[in-house]
């Protein structure tokens, strides 16, 4: 039964870490442009090489 | 990108680019601006159709707008005063995250209890769940508690009242059970309920944010300024908010006036259709008043500003609109109407249950626990989702079809429509004069080659239209091209004098094509009907909706369109009369949809049961309308009406499903057989059914 005493705090801490990460992302502007983020993946970056 | 010199001072500016819509546009804009001299960085926000550019002092907003025009995007610098509207989603995201986190963890512990944890283990688990759940419920439940408290204080009830009561009572009972070491704790159910409902609200808010930012991009595009001439003859660009009476604006052909004023030099034709609905341009000379929002068609003029902002023409319209808007705010949303029946029914049922068990000889504690179980199981999880989820899915479908829905109640009101009033200029028609197709087709080879060549040398709207229509032809090689403002474009071609010029005298919009000594050809211009107008009207009629035309334009212009579409029409209607007509129809018990774009339609848009405007509408039109359609096709109107009707039938089905669920669950609860496990399964099951049913609306706008 004592294993529960370790597992419970660990599970809660992991969950809290996820919650904190979400709040950080929210404050960091990660949810400002969901549509743009979805589209950006389609943009090729390859032709930027000739700039160098 | 490797700048070694000391970093120069950068400033940022935000541009609205309403026409971008895909990854291709994003990369074109970001690369196009990024390579510009003086630009450090350009970042697109596709959700709000804005570009944020950081640049140094060598470059300003106007250069950026020109650069964007060069790569094919119309852009407008955002007004500095206009702050980003507060997002409806953001304040709900944190409660949702907390509720979801707490619900998952509590559920984890609850499962152990359900699968047979006993004695001290169960007590420990219950205490931990209480520790997680109580603060989480306090934080995540606030949106509901606040709204419910507001309703109760006003002596009414809404969907949040039974929700808040259910959640609070469930938490209170559970806490008591935990303290006395009882068998059942309901924290998981309460948290799950909050999570589901918050998810529904977040979706609902997302829909409103999306429409708001879409409309805002269109509105800020229309906000303009003017080139102001100073005493020493130099000009500078002044934004419309900073214009002062007494300033002299120089208005080039093709520009809109940013303020009312008196013409002090030049004569030109003006298109007042946005203000009055009248499509034929009027000629104004020195000493005449020109109104803000009118389009200068032919020659540059100088205008001394007399009134700015919302002083004159707008004042009357604004006053009319304010009165109408109050009228609409009295509409009660369907969810709240349902709650008015539901909340008293459920609460008296719970009370009766307690009384019944007491009469049957149960102890006060037992009777209360069972009564609370009734409240918890009837807590309107599915009912709370029934409306928002259906509306969100439908408005997402409409958004993909180019129709922005401002809020959910617009769908509810749109569904009841049985009468449509359409404005003419810019709504039923495109509002952009096009050269007469028959005349263009009858042009000789030479004429068809010379006309676009001449037209390409002018930025006048009529020239642009000629150039577009004849863009398939190879333009002739011209020499000695001159554009004389207010007169036309003149040139030589094969030793002949050729010209594309303004006809003498006023009357209908037209251009003259002069080829050497031959008699000039007149190319008349007319305002074309929107594509699919006939089919759109037919679909509306098939849906049992009567349509008619109501316009501020002259009788003859309206008659042409009325004949073409077969609609009953009323011409020369002033803004206040349009509003009065809407009011009169509503008195008769008709549910009126107003479709219009101009300032003159604003009061009628606000007075109607529901309203739509095209994306090209005036600011006032865009703000007053419930829905804005950004495509040219008029099919958007029947699409919106039919999608709304389908949405409401799904909403009613959802209500039926929620009631069906209650018919099974409530007897169990009254009999005292409901455990937290059964409550959890029943609640999530019914919610999923409702969501799944709503997803059928994803294709509603087809």
UniProtKB/TrEMBL annotation, chain A:
InterPro entries on file: Cyt_oxidase_maturation_cbb3 (IPR004714)
Pfam families on file: FixS
Protein name: Cbb3-type cytochrome oxidase assembly protein CcoS
Species of provenance: Aurantiacibacter gilvus
Automatic annotation (TrEMBL), chain B:
Classification via Gene3D superfamilies: 3.30.70.100, Calcium-transporting ATPase, cytoplasmic domain N (3.40.1110.10), Calcium-transporting ATPase, cytoplasmic transduction domain A (2.70.150.10), HAD superfamily/HAD-like (3.40.50.1000)
Membrane-topology descriptor: Multi-pass membrane protein
Record's keyword annotation contains Magnesium: yes
Domain named HMA: residues: 11-76
Localization per Swiss-Prot or TrEMBL: Cell membrane
Keywords, sorted A to Z: ATP-binding, Cell membrane, Ion transport, Magnesium, Membrane, Metal-binding, Nucleotide-binding, Phosphoprotein, Translocase, Transmembrane, Transmembrane helix, Transport
Protein family according to the UniProt entry: Belongs to the cation transport ATPase (P-type) (TC 3.A.3) family. Type IB subfamily.
Regions crossing the membrane: 92-112, 124-141, 161-179, 185-203, 341-362, 368-394, 654-671, 677-698
Organism whose genome encodes this protein: Aurantiacibacter gilvus
Keyword set includes S-adenosyl-L-methionine: no
PROSITE patterns: ATPASE_E1_E2, HMA_1, HMA_2
Protein name: Heavy metal translocating P-type ATPase
